[in-house]
Amino acid sequence: MLATETKVKPIDCYHYIDGQYVPSKNGKTFENVNPATEEVLGVVSEGGKEEVDLAIKAARKAIKGEWRKMPLRKRSAILRKIGDLILERKDELAMLETLDTGKPLWLSTNVDIDRAAYNFHFFADYMISVGNEAYQQDDIAIHYSVSRPVGVVGLINPWNLPLLLMTWKLAPALAAGNTVVMKPSEVTPMTATVLAQICTDAGVPDGVVNMVHGFGETGAAITSHPDVDAIAFTGETVTGSAIMKAAAPTLKKLSFELGGKNPNIIFADANMEDVIETTLRSSFMNQGEVCLCGSRIYVERSIYNEFLEKFVAKTKELKVGDPLDPNTNVGALVSKEHYNKVLSYLELAPQEGGTFLTGGKPLEGSEKGYFVEPTIITGLGRNSRCVREEIFGPVVTVLPFDTEEEVLEQVNDTHYGLSASLWTGDLKRAHRVAGQIEAGMIWINTWFLRDLRTPFGGMKHSGIGREGGAHSFDFYTELSNITIKL
Ligand code: NAD
């Protein structure tokens, strides 16, 4: 039997439109399943065109209301209050996140919910300091710019870091005075449902934050809607492409954070202890379901065997299982569909010539839940699908390399370009190599170290635009330049 008893009860999820929870007009719902137990947690209202229309109508009305005109200090205080309320309800939100995703409770508590609150605290501070440009052109004219919200923004998100990623978009969108329609992933609807109420409790006027639950079709109804001005999307590359098409006729502003197949490059002069400790996290944290995970590991040949021996030994020590157990390192994959996708790659790997050094199968002895053993694969060719495609589970491939040029060539031989890590004791090499990696975020001798002011996002098929600090503000605002002749 799984799971320690919990006092927090799962919730049924309704849409949130104009400050009210509402079911779908046609009563349509779908089941929300706990991936660790396969038990039904509750039902989720499935939004259709009608709910999307209502939510956008509410947001459209609210964009003309008090929110965008509110004194900056007051709007900032409301954002701060949202962060405070998230922290006040941290245990409840963390439990809901874990029941929805299957990730360890300690991770939900210390990473997902903490960061969700910080997203609001950060932008509450940041928004106060945002200024605009002004230029004096000799004695001819003065030019200055004024900013205004983009308008109604659709926020569409995936299941891997549900509250963290929703707040990463919602906080700057609100800070800049926009109104929104959120569409959380159908697989993880609970924390966003609570977040909507938290926004109202903190003083956000009705109609500013709306939410519609549902599948891809619900998202598509938002992205093609003529009254939506911009779409901020995080999810799969193919979905990004579909959204771009749907948004084209009405020329919406787009921000995309998409998939990745991130390299982790380990040179022989790196500190092996640090490498192993961080590579364990960058490979298997959140069941490998982090867009930034380093799932393609390249190791300089002279330390290849030593690395593998140590990495495999530490990976075998990871405790996989009950997300509510504080000793669990790796929980359940998010859904049956995703579990089957990951297992299909584990079937494929030996056919492509790969060898499992550990893992390669569902967790032994588990009868319920979507648990997969942390898996390390060697022996694969650089063109194998397991090396090239995003598996998004606790599965890494390891390949040896001989020279800097050779590894760079392999690392950049992909249509993805989200993030990369590299490990070396040689400062010159660190900068030289980092500057040549085609990725939006590159870590040297670390991983996942973030400062929310820095640009976050991917190049190539991993994204369009950047989030974070000024970059988020650029996306969620429109500028007008005003010129006065002297
Ligand atoms: P997904 O693209 O399947 O779904 C994401 C969201 O889009 C969901 O809410 C879904 O309902 C909605 N959606 C699906 N089809 C749609 C359509 N046609 N129009 C509008 N909305 C639609 O992604 P997922 O499986 O939920 O998440 C995993 C993916 O997210 C991985 O590829 C991962 O790399 C990526 N991701 C990227 C980042 C990043 O910052 N770059 C962060 C986290 C996850």
TrEMBL record:
Record GO terms (molecular function): betaine-aldehyde dehydrogenase (NAD+) activity
Active site feature:
E257
This protein's superkingdom?
Bacteria
Which enzyme class, named as a word? oxidoreductase
Where in the numbering of this chain does the Aldehyde dehydrogenase domain appear?
22-481
EC number(s) per entry: 1.2.1.8
Q: Name one Pfam family in it.
A: Aldedh
Q: Mind listing the UniProt keywords for this protein, alphabetically?
A: NAD, Oxidoreductase
Family that this chain belongs to? Belongs to the aldehyde dehydrogenase family.
Mind telling me what this protein is named?
Answer: Aldehyde dehydrogenase
Organism of origin: Heyndrickxia ginsengihumi
Q: What is the lineage of its organism?
A: Bacteria, Bacillati, Bacillota, Bacilli, Bacillales
